[in-house]
Specification:
alpha+beta; 16-stranded antiparallel barrel; 3-stranded mixed sheet; 33 strands
Length: 854
């Protein structure tokens, strides 16, 4: 029999040989099996809040309901690990087991002091020490470290956090975290080593981290964040892989703190390798009934093109999804690239094989406290019970990230209940999706402009988008409401509804004001990742307004008339005759156009004014092809937009309007980007309904820079009127632009220059040219001149209405621009010089526009 013993100076050795009873030990020492007790016999001392039965439950009895030394040790460890106790002691005396505990205090308050940059609410959600919870020193130290980590991720590496404990009666404590935030630690410099193909200037566009500058306080991308630095490594690698560098390696991202400058130096070390082109593409299928070549049309890789890892990934995804649609749910597409180092080519082989027959047992969605489960699950093209398809899982993860509802999205796998089952875990971290913004800007077209808007991208957690905006400016005012349901009737079809009230006031470029009230539902479909279709219906009411002095028949004070004739009188044959008799047959204007030649707005404007509010009901669609590398600041890719609208589904007007717009971006040498912009439009009259002037194309700097808004195209020639631009039913435009950085300025300033040449034409006016409806002309459809004055080119007796210049002239200009992606929003300044222009065009050489949200 083994005997437990207590040794005191070595004098009891002989006694142990004679006594089969273990000596009593304190502080958790051993007991012999001979003294093993049942759980119910354990005596608990020192507990106040924790029940004795709870403490006893940590001691698990062995066979026969007895405790041996191992089980007592396990119970001791379990009690200590709960964090409920400062101290736990186990004594064995008189055949009994006594557990003595000293309970941890209860936290009364958790207070944060000195924190200005991070709110109390954020810190409270991060720390584990909570009011009414148990105080634990290790937990408090971990909380202090967590608070420091939060500040370091925000770029404040000088932060210090000191916890303080204030004891209160009844074994309670207050916990105070005193924070010394320190100054923000920024990125002083970003360097690249080993990059020979792409300049450091270009690579700084690829990464998210920015160098500190004078305007850095408006953003946060210049603060040191190790997670962002690591993500930048992957962005650089993917950029090279997209442009043919199959062997690229971003060896390291070195960060060094400079105590003198109190900032970090970041250095990316790159090994570019060779640039490859695609030498051949083949398809090999080991699955019976599935021809690999049948999937070739879903490949985005072509022979002769630059090797593009991103296109390769998308090809694998599309091919694997198509194989699944054809009934091969477990098909796996694996690309293989064989490099030819001499010819710098890659031979790509798409291998299609049968993958493991694995099914999805369950999809767990975790971390969504606000967003409804179905909003997340509908982004999956697979569900519980379906065959596991990694390509579809990756697509779902990408879609969830694109929702912009979450800070992070991660989908992981774990084994299911059997070897052919897998469980998908979707871990999310939500972020704020509401936005209140005040926007301000100024342009030479619209003048000063302000907008206040409230929007929500995830309305009620249902994935809906809603926005209300109010605009007020010198020449433009209005209210708009937008609503989008991204999944109409549970299909991947977006339904949008827009309602608006707009008022365009008269300005230096337009004599009349327009008021428009409208409503437009629209449906959007993503046909492919680079191709989208929008169907829309628009119904709106539009009305022109004019000041009185632009809509009367007598603005001349020296016309010799003893009275001011009303339009109703002057527009009759009798009125015309009476006025001519009074004047002795002499027209002081020299035009013979009494109600059209002494200061009024143009005839088409006043005709539409007399017609009152006009209702337009139109259906249309837009087809957009987009391969841009960056929608906000593109440097490579193509975007083509084709639009058509048919008015005449009810309403007062009828027409067919078509327009196309194409922009092609390509990187050139030394970080210069070339841009080719082509555009054109055609308006077709339907039936006998004349096309209104307001519905025709109006062009200016949006077609050829260097001209004012509504500054080109057919124009009213009346020298005594407002000479309004009439617009046209056809236009085309072409532009070539080169954008280049200012290499002598820091990249983070976001400023670059542009030089460009524009050419364009607008013509074929088909609006009203007479006003027979109200008798403004002597004979229906014409005006007869009284004489042949110097401002009236027609001979006496000629029957005509509106006199206008069709201006069949190709306009062209050259210019320079300054583009600034400022913290206040995108700004652009242009100065253009017209090279060719019409005799009545309005030139505006300088143009400025921009705005922001704050």
């Amino acid at each position: 029999m083994k005997v437990g013993m207590g040794v005191r100076g070595g004098l009891l050795a002989a006694l142990v040989m004679l006594t089969p009873v273990a000596a009593t030990l304190a502080v958790g020492l051993v007991s012999s099996p001979a003294l093993a007790q049942s759980v119910d016999s354990i005596q608990v001392e020192g507990n106040r809040r924790v029940e004795a039965s709870t403490i006893r439950s940590y001691f698990k009895p062995g066979p026969g309901g007895k405790l041996d030394q191992g089980r007592i040790d396990d119970g001791l460890k379990g009690l200590i690990e709960t964090g409920l106790f400062q101290d736990v002691r186990i004594n064995q005396a008189g055949g009994r087991v006594i557990v003595t505990v000293v309970e941890n205090p209860v936290i009364g308050r958790v207070v944060f002091e000195g924190n200005k940059k991070v709110k109390d609410e954020q810190l409270s959600s991060e720390v584990q020490s909570k009011p009414r919870g148990t105080f634990s020193r290790p937990m408090v130290q971990a909380d202090a470290q967590r608070i420091a980590d939060i500040y370091r991720h925000a770029g404040r590496y000088d932060v210090s956090v000191v916890p303080e404990i204030i004891e209160q009666p009844n074994n309670r404590v207050d916990l105070i975290f005193t924070v010394n935030e320190g100054k923000k630690t920024g990125i002083n410099s970003i360097e690249f080593i080993g990059n020979t193909t792409y300049s450091s200037y270009r690579l700084k566009d690829v990464i998210k981290t920015r160098e500190s500058n004078l305007l850095s306080f408006l953003g946060g991308s210049d603060v040191y964040d190790p997670d962002r630095i690591e993500a930048d490594r992957d962005l650089i690698r993917r950029y090279y892989l997209k442009h043919g560098f199959a062997d690229v390696q971003v060896v390291a991202a070195l960060t060094e703190y400079d105590p003198d400058k109190k900032g970090f130096l970041v250095t990316f070390k790159i090994e570019e390798g060779q640039q490859y082109r695609v030498g051949s593409v083949t398809y090999q299928s080991s699955i019976a009934g599935l021809d690999g070549n049948a999937l070739a049309r879903f490949s985005r890789v072509s022979v002769g093109s630059l090797y593009n890892a991103e296109a390769l990934e998308k090809s694998v995804e599309e091919m694997q999804i198509e194989a699944s649609r054809r009934g091969f749910a477990f098909a796996v597409v694996k690309p293989r690239g064989d490099r030819n180092f001499e010819s710098h080519t890659v031979s790509i082989v798409f291998g299609i094989d049968e993958g493991p027959r694995t099914y999805i047992e369950r999809i767990n969605v975790r971390g969504n406290t606000r967003t409804r489960d179905y909003v997340i699950r509908r982004e999956f093209d697979i569900a519980e019970g379906d065959a596991y398809n990694r390509a579809l899982v990756d697509r779902a993860e990408r879609r969830l990230k694109n929702l912009d509802f979450f800070k992070s999205v991660k989908i992981t796998n774990e084994p299911g209940s059997s070897s052919d089952r897998v469980i998908l875990n979707v871990d999310l971290e939500e972020k704020s999706t509401g936005d209140f913004s005040v926007s301000g800007g100024y342009s030479t077209t619209d003048g000063p402009l302000a907008e206040v808007s409230v929007s929500e991208r995830n309305l009620l957690g249902r994935g809906l988008m809603g926005k209300v905006a109010v605009t007020y400016g010198q020449y433009a005012r209005g209210v708009s409401f937008s609503f989008v349901e991204p999944y109409l009737l549970d299909y991947r079809v977006a339904l949008g509804l827009d309602a608006y009230y707009r008022q365009q006031l008269s300005s230096p470029y337009i004599a009349y004001s327009t008021t428009t009230i409208g409503f437009s539902p629209r449906v959007g479909l993503q046909l492919r990742e680079d191709l989208s279709l929008q169907l829309r219906y628009s119904i709106y009411q539009q009305q022109i307004s004019l000041p009185s002095y632009l809509d009367n028949c007598n603005n001349l004070t020296n016309n010799g008339l003893p009275f001011n004739p009303s339009p109703a009188f002057a527009n009759t044959a009798a009125g015309q005759l009476a006025i001519q008799n009074i004047l002795g047959g002499v027209d002081p204007t020299g035009t013979g156009l009494f109600c059209y030649g002494d200061g009024e707005a143009s005839l088409p404007v006043r005709k539409e004014l007399a017609q009152g509010a006009t209702l337009t009901s139109a259906v249309g669609y837009s087809l957009t092809y987009n391969t841009l590398d960056n929608n906000r600041n593109p440097t490579d890719g193509l975007v083509i937009d084709w639009r058509q609208d048919f008015a005449g589904v009810g309403g007062d007007v009828t027409y067919l309007k078509s327009a196309a717009d194409m922009k092609y971006y390509t990187p050139l040498v030394a970080d210069i980007v070339g841009i080719v912009h082509l555009q054109g439009g055609l308006m077709t009259q339907i039936g006998n309904n004349q096309i209104r002037m307001l519905d025709q194309f109006q062009m200016g700097p949006n077609l050829v820079r260097g001209f004012a808004p509504n500054g080109i195209g057919p124009r009213d020639l009346n020298p005594f009127g407002t000479q309004d631009a009439l617009g046209g039913t056809q236009y085309w435009g072409a532009s070539l632009e080169f954008q280049m950085p200012f290499w002598f300025l820091p990249k983070e300033i976001g400023m670059k220059g542009a030089v460009y040449a524009d050419a364009g034409w607008l013509g074929d006016y088909k609006g009203p040219t007479d006003w027979a409806l109200t008798g403004e002309v002597n004979t229906p459809g014409c005006i007869r001149p009284v004489n042949n004055g110097p401002n009236f080119p027609a001979s006496a007796g000629t029957c005509l209405g509106l006199q206008y210049d069709p201006q069949n002239v190709v306009r062209s200009s050259v210019g320079v621009g300054l583009i600034w992606q400022s913290p206040f929003g995108p700004l652009r300044f242009d100065y253009a010089i017209p090279l060719t222009k019409g005799p009545h065009d309005i030139v505006q050489q300088f143009k400025f526009g921009g705005g922001t949200s704050f």
